[in-house]
Each structure stands twice: as structure tokens, then as C-alpha cells.
Amino acid sequence: MGAIIEVDHLSKTYDKGPRALDDVSLTIDEGEIVALLGPNGAGKTTLISIICGLVVPSSGTVRVGGHDILTDWRAARRLIGLVPQEIALEPFESVINTVRFTRGLYGARPDDAYLEKLLRSLALWEKRDAPTRALSGGMKRRVLIAKALSHRPRVLFLDEPTAGVDVALRREMWQVVDQLRRDGVTIILTTHYLEEAEEMADRIGVIDGGKLLLMKPTAELMGDFGKKHLTIYLHEPLTDCPPELLERGLTPSRDGLQLGYDYDTRADRTGIANLLADLAVRGIQVRDVSTKQSTLEEVFMSLVDNGSGPDGSAAPDRNSAGETA
Fold first, then answer.
1. How many CB atoms lie within 10 A of CB 175?
2. Where is each ABC transporter domain found (predicted)?
């Protein structure tokens, strides 16, 4: 499938304010799930707002389904659904009428059968006649999702969709997202729950200071930047670790019963075999070993911390990061 979103050299500078976006380019293919990660104020919401037609860019172009968001905005917006961060609903309107009204705003004809299916999928059907002010915070967020899907968009933006939502509801929402993926809906999400991004997203983009640091397939990102940590469990406490082992990167635990060792998963040789052999030569008996892969959170923090990679090197630019702009 081809690209459904094309962002080309997009920048945004607010009056008397900072540069919110700085020359961002990316493409998103139809049916993809893309997660945008970045600290608060990184530019994620500004990027989403521009694509959705809520903010006018300072420069650059955006096309959705081939439609320019400025010159062909009606056609572009019909393809988009947005679940915003903030919960803003008419407090005295019923759930069903709220969703009907949003569908009408997009010029879609009434279709109560579809709306019933939609509300049932979000566990809202029993609450269809309740005023939105009577709903819990989690239920109100479900209503926002129903509104965003009311006109059957091809692209769905989820801006922190599970913020303030309990664990059970988060799981239900991601089940809905998984079904949308199977239906061919393109999904772009921002989230602070990094484990969700790692599990759900096909690709992950990291934004900081208005710049897109990279955009990579999730597995490739973890392979390129993820390191593994080897823990070596000893039979007897090591009271004094030999200097030559410390120079090789071994870090003993306080009780001396464990040795830690970080290694690059991409390296041709990890050095683990030689390391274990050296321990045996020195009479240090190994009881067991275990490995742990770096989490996406650790990768993310290493990328946005002073713009450096996990090993302290400069973060890759957009082209070398594998972006398909």
C-alpha cells in the first residue's frame, strides 16, 4: 500500500514564541501504526494539529490521501479522525447525539446501524442515552474515540489516548486499535506509555525540540539502539574484582555475588565467551547467567538526552535514520 500521509519540510513558528517544528519530513503508509515519542513540548501535538488542519504551518506541505491540507482541505479532513488529549464534550448532550452530531459535521449521512456497532465496540451502547457529564473519565475518553470514528476515517490520530485511564480500559482501547489496524485504518499515536508503543507500533518516530530525530521500524530501532545486559551470578562473593576485569566493563554488585556486563547486540563478537573463560581461569565459579534487553524507554531517553545515542554518540539525522521522506 502507498503513502497516505506525506509531510515535506514542515516548520511552525508561533508569534513571539519558539520554533515548534523545524523542517520535519516523513511519510506514513496506509494501514500503518506509527508512534510519536517525545518529551512535553517536543512538537508532537503541533505536528498532529497541522496535519488535522487545526494549525496553519509556517512553511512546508502536508498531503493526506493525496489532498493538500491547505488547498484541498475539505477532502483531506474527511479522511482524518482525531482523539485529542483534552476531554471537551457538551455536558448535557447524550452520548448517541454527541456522536451523531460529529458525524454530521463531516457531511456523512445518518447511519444508526454503524453508530450502534461503533458504540458497542467501545462498551458505550448501554450508556448511549446518558448525558456525557454523568460519565466517568474513562467513559468520556471512549466517547472521544467514538466521535473520531463516527465518519469512518482512513486515518486516526490518538493524542495521548490512554492518559488517566485505568489498566483494564487501556487494554480494551488497544483491542479496538488492533481491530482498526485489521480494518486497514492508519493510526498515528502519541503516548507516554512506552511499552504500548513498543508493542503496538509498526514504526516509531522520536521528536525533540521540534526536530524529527528518527523514524524507524520498531524492531529495527530496538536492534540498532538496544543493548543487552548480562548478569553473572557467582557461587561465592567476589570481595576484590581484578582490575583487568573492571577494565573490560564488568561491574560487581555490592554484595559481590553478581557481575554486570553490557554488550552491543550488533557486534560480531560480544566477548561473553572470552569473559566467562577468564573468570574460570581466575577460579571465579559461575552459578548462572541471565540477559536483559534494553527497553524502549531506555532507548528513548538516550536519544533525547542532549541529542545523543545510547552510547553517547550523536543521534542519527533523519535520512540516516531510515525515514522514508
1. 11
2. 5-234
Residue 26, beta-bridge partner list: 7
From CA 5, how far away is CA 10, in angstroms rounded?
Answer: 13
| N-terminal to C-terminal alpha carbon distance within the chain | 16
For residues 243, 244, 249, 255, the Cα torsion angle rounded to the nearest 10 degrees is -40
The mean per-residue pLDDT over the stretch 45-54 comes to 93
Question: Scanning the structure block, which residue is given the C-alpha cell 529495527?
Answer: 220
In a domain, 312, yes or no: no
| Domain assignment of residue 182, given as a range | 3-79+154-222
For residue 169, CA distances in Å to 129, 136, 161, 193, 260 come to 21, 12, 11, 14, 38
Decide if 192 contacts 296 (C-beta within 8 A).
Answer: no
User: In whole angstroms, what is the distance from residue 50 CA to residue 211 CA?
Assistant: 15
Give tens-digit pLDDT for 155-178: 999 988 776 666 777 777 778 788
Place of cell 518529551: 39
CA dist., res. 106 & res. 103, Å (int)? 6
Q: For residue 43, what is its C-alpha cell?
A: 512538537
Tally of structural domains, the chain: 2
Which CATH number do you get for residue 172? 3.40.50.300
Q: Is residue 89 part of a domain?
A: no
Q: What is the pLDDT of residues 270-304, one digit of tens each?
A: 778 888 888 888 888 898 988 887 776 777 777 76
